[in-house]
């Protein structure tokens, strides 16, 4: 975001705050941020604060930052929304906060993973817009427009259901797939010689950061558990069809799954 | 294969055989094949026969073709190997057959899905090489060299174990993921508005052909069931850690899964 907001003239200058000193230095070297400082100092220097940290830290930082700001706008970009808006709603200064989830990312993290254009044409979900001030909301919307994102409004509860189905389960599915193959590799040394494009694509997300994902799964526990149950049930449907040598049922399951085609191609 | 074998001078001419007349015509239009004929006629015209059909049809065609050929070489490119070599081994003419699995493909099928360079730098598994004649094996190896594939030797049984873990489970995982989200979509109409790169990547294989995959899963039932059980167990590990609010266990599972990184990046 810093890269594109500077390149496209939205940000004159970007101040970085990071608990990890190496990452902070690296972000300076790469020109992603113009200076590094502590959080207290940064709050006083900026017009917009973007919280891009694990979602448990997001809540801590909202509690810390909201009471300290006046006209600055605080935007979070975390992958859960209900626990985050609940935290923000406890503050008198709620109106300076905008809850957002830009649906874009890669399996990589840290400053070296920053790429320009990541958000172009992707969706950003904005939650509880009515609780943000006109000024804060306008600034956030302008920012996401500069990032070329499609803006979608949704309540926080629905967001978390959808995110569980569209994003969180994909990650668990991928982590579990990696674990299954790594488990087998103990006995079958050359198993990865055969890895091809299909494997790489389904397992890609298993490279993702545990620091980022553990708090997401826990904050969205109810929905993630629901989709996990649905997912496991469909896997059992495949197992049962196999057990029964039921080619017709296997074909039916896959034909139903094929209905994802127009959605992925659109 | 036809595209690259012609372009790179290995094949003077390619004769197409397809039970689907539309696909046959389309392959002609696209210049993938030079003529279309029936299977009996084709056998007499060619030096090499490549069986690229669903794996149940592969076995039927081996039984039909092997007794009819002399110096022609019959190569199958199916995703299972044990049932296929077992079928071939029943024939006197076994030595003219080469069992191969080029580990490359896309989620698309039919002549319009043909792309040049698909096999470059990918692995091809050759099984039971010792049962093929020197002439047949040399021809198959030359062909896969022209296709720029890394040749790996493996017995058919090991191949089927590895293929279950590296390829077949990725497909089931992806089909089940698509089914889960499509199932939820009945209640949550706008769920796909949020779909992003991570979703597309894990669900891509759910577009694959049921005709191709049902026979693969059934022929490799034992190994596919084993990897499905392992996979479901790891999903339950995630569910249990969530149930216990056990952030440490979630982190451990994901950190173990992260060990897939150097393998995917190599």
Rg of chain A, rounded, reads 21 Å
- Lateral arrangement of strands in the main beta sheet of chain A: 3-4-5-6-7
> N-to-C SSE series of chain A?
HEHEHEHEHEEHEHHHHHH
In terms of quaternary structure, the protein is homodimer
- Which pair has the most extensive contact? A-B, 92 and 92 residues
- Helix count of chain A equals 12
- Name the structural class of chain A: alpha/beta
- DSSP strand content of chain A: 5-15%
Query: What composes the largest sheet of chain A?
Result: 5 strands, mixed
Per DSSP E runs of 2 or more residues, the count of β-strands of chain A stands at 7
Helix fraction of chain A, binned, reads 40-55%
Give an overview of the whole structure:
With 266 residues, chain A is α/β, with parallel strands linked by helices. Helix content of chain A is 53%, strand content 11%. Chain A has twelve helices and seven strands. In chain A, strands 3-4-5-6-7 form a five-stranded mixed sheet, with helices on both faces. In chain A, strands 1-2 form a two-stranded parallel ribbon. In chain A, strand 4 (73-76), helix 5 and strand 5 (97-102) form a beta-alpha-beta unit. In chain A, helix 4 (55-65) packs parallel to helix 5 (82-89) and helix 10 runs antiparallel to helix 11 (247-257). Chain A is globular. The relative contact order of chain A is 0.10. The mean pLDDT of chain A is 95. At the A-B interface, helix 7, helix 8, helix 9, helix 10 and helix 11 of A face helix 7, helix 8, helix 9, helix 10 and helix 11 of B.
